[in-house]
Amino acid sequence: QVQLVESGGGSVQVGGSLRLSCAASGSTSSIVVIGWYRQAPGKQRELVAVIGSGGGTNYADSVKGRSTISRDNAKNTVYLQMNSLKPEDTAVYYCKVERLTSSGARIQYWGQGTQVTVSS
């Protein structure tokens, strides 16, 4: 099992910055991928950024160049630094991890979400 606690959301003005944190506990040694997703009202949940165990990253086009995902393995924490925020970045942001089991299966765990609101 993996438990996730997200923090860092809040309300900012257009052009502002936020850093989201996702702290993992439990069976963290078998985590292979950690990602941030978001869901705006009336829209489907979408990928924002992911980082693999080797440090490789991938970003949604909508945040590329404005956001950076990073991980601190010693703290079992993943960060999402978001800059130049736009109103369309307003959403609930969720952390998701994939854990690899001994049988090779991947299990997903989701955090509770943290609200990001960008106002003009």
Can you describe what's shown?
The chain is mainly β and 120 residues long. Helices cover 0% and strands 59% of the residues. It contains no helices and eleven strands. The chain has strands at residues 2-7, 10-13, 18-26, 31-39, 46-52, 57-59, 67-72, 77-82, 91-100, 106-110, 114-119. The relative contact order is 0.32. The mean pLDDT is 95.
What is the count of helical runs? Answer: 0
The shape is: elongated
- Helical fraction equals under 10%
What percent of residues are in strands?
A: over 45%
* Largest sheet properties: 7 strands, mixed
User: How many angstroms does the end-to-end distance come to?
Assistant: 40 Å
SS-based class: mainly beta
Low-confidence stretches: none
- Averaged pLDDT: 95
* Element pattern in H and E: EEEEEEEEEEE
Instruction: Tell me the number of strands.
Output: 11
Rg, nearest Å: 14 Å
Concise synopsis of the structure shown:
This protein is an all-beta fold. Helix content is 0%, strand content 59%.
Task: Provide the fold topology.
Elements: E1 2-7, E2 10-13, E3 18-26, E4 31-39, E5 46-52, E6 57-59, E7 67-72, E8 77-82, E9 91-100, E10 106-110, E11 114-119
Parallel strand pairs: 2-11
Antiparallel strand pairs: 1-3, 3-8, 4-5, 4-9, 5-6, 7-8, 9-10, 9-11
Name a few traits of the molecule.
single chain; elongated; 4-stranded antiparallel β-sheet; 7-stranded mixed β-sheet; mainly beta; 120 residues; 11 strands
